[in-house]
Design brief:
Its main location: membrane. One of its GO terms (cellular component) is plasma membrane. By secondary structure, the protein is mainly alpha-helical. It contains seven helices and two strands, in the order αααααββαα. The protein folds into two domains: 10-75; 88-187, Tetraspanin (Cd81 Antigen, Extracellular Domain, Chain: A, Orthogonal Bundle), CATH 1.10.1450. Helices cover 62% and strands 3% of the residues. The longest helix is centred in the last third of the chain and has 36 residues, at 186-221. The termini are far apart.
């Protein structure tokens, strides 16, 4: 079986590190902003402004990278999912989190495989079972509604064989399902992103205003000669 490091890609790793960095910077930024506002410390408010600006620029850059590199990211994600499907094993605890995440995607989006249910014909366990079982998370049958992971047995005679066409599963591949979900929710996604950007801009404006007020107060407190 593939190790977790083999199930990723340089682009996805870079994206994960960026998100971790932005999260850590956000926590630090919030602390510095509160401390600077309460104690009226100009340098902390300036640092708060700088952190907000860096985060905003990072978000814009990430959006541009995703937009212009989407085909490459799609290809890398395709390889990751194909490897996951080929080595999927409900008894493998080492890959349980990754497998559960993929089962969740297939259940919520009502899809099967990356391009379609045929992808599951490359799974080692299903090959050994002559395709007489299928991934439960792909099922469109009401009897499997409560089962969201592992394999379900196909109702076929003993010692017979089957193909993915015999499975009671969704025909749509998850690649098309994800793209459809993004298109259907594009307005909400853009609205949330715009809202976050506006809040960050307001924070930058407020930090500058506080810095100016503190500077004005310091100036009025200077005794005139």
């Amino acid at each position: 079986f593939l190790a977790p490091t083999e199930m990723s890609s340089p682009s996805l790793k870079t994206g994960a590190y960026i998100l971790i960095g932005v999260g850590a910077l956000t926590m630090l930024m919030g602390f510095l902003g509160c401390l600077g506002a309460v104690n009226e410390i100009r340098c902390l408010l300036g640092l708060y402004f700088t952190c907000l600006m860096v985060i905003l620029i990072t978000q814009v850059a990430a959006g541009l990278v995703i937009y212009f590199q989407k085909e490459m990211l799609k290809e890398e994600l395709s390889h990751i999912v194909e490897n996951l499907i080929e080595t999927y094993d409900p008894l493998n605890d080492d890959e349980r989190n990754l497998q559960d995440a993929w089962d969740y995607v297939q259940t919520q989006i009502a899809c099967c495989g990356w391009t379609g249910a045929k992808d599951w014909e490359n799974n080692e366990i299903l090959i050994n079972r002559s395709m007489t079982a299928y991934p439960c998370s792909c099922s469109n049958s009401s009897k499997d509604f409560q089962v969201e992971n592992g394999f379900c047995n196909l109702d076929v005679p003993v010692n017979s064989t089957a193909t993915y066409a015999d499975w009671p599963v969704h025909e749509q591949g998850c690649m098309d399902g994800v793209e459809k979900w993004l298109k259907d929710n594009l307005g909400v996604i853009l609205g949330v992103c715009t809202g976050v950007a506006v809040i960050e801009l307001l924070g930058m404006i407020l930090s500058i205003s506080l810095c100016k007020n503190i500077h004005s107060e310091d100036y009025t407190k200077v005794p005139k000669s």
